[in-house]
Amino acid sequence: MKQISRMAILAVLVSLLSGCFLTKIVSTPMRVVGATASVAGAALSIFPVVGNEADAALERVDGTIDTAADRIDDIPI
Fold first, then answer.
1. Residue 38: CB partners within 8 Å, gap ≥ 6?
2. Buried-state track 36-46, b at ≥16 Cβ within 10 A, e below 16
3. Which pTM was predicted?
4. Fewer CB near the last or first residue (10 Å), C or N of the chain?
């Protein structure tokens, strides 16, 4: 009985929440991971030559993650 009531509450919440909110739930963790990679790249840039290339690579990863998250946000639900 408890599980049925939880499923019913979840179904009501999903039907009432806008699609934009649901896509934000998916894309926010992606953006956090991208930002963390960017910060790690900035820390690695302390090391000459190798650090700068690692920073540039992680910046590209961050940009790719942001692009993917933006596309998920644009999905019309």
1. 58, 59, 62
2. ebbeebeebbe
3. 0.55
4. N
Identity at 53, one-letter amino acid code: E
Q: Which residues contact 35 (CB under 8 A, 6 or more apart)?
A: 62
Domain ranges of the chain: 18-73
Identify the burial level of 62 via C-beta atoms within 10 angstroms of its C-beta, where 0-12 means exposed, 13-18 middle and 19 or more buried: buried
First vs last C-alpha separation in the chain = 31
pLDDT at position 17, please?
A: 65
Question: What residue ranges in 2-72 does DSSP mark as E strands?
Answer: none
Structure tokens at 38: 């960017």
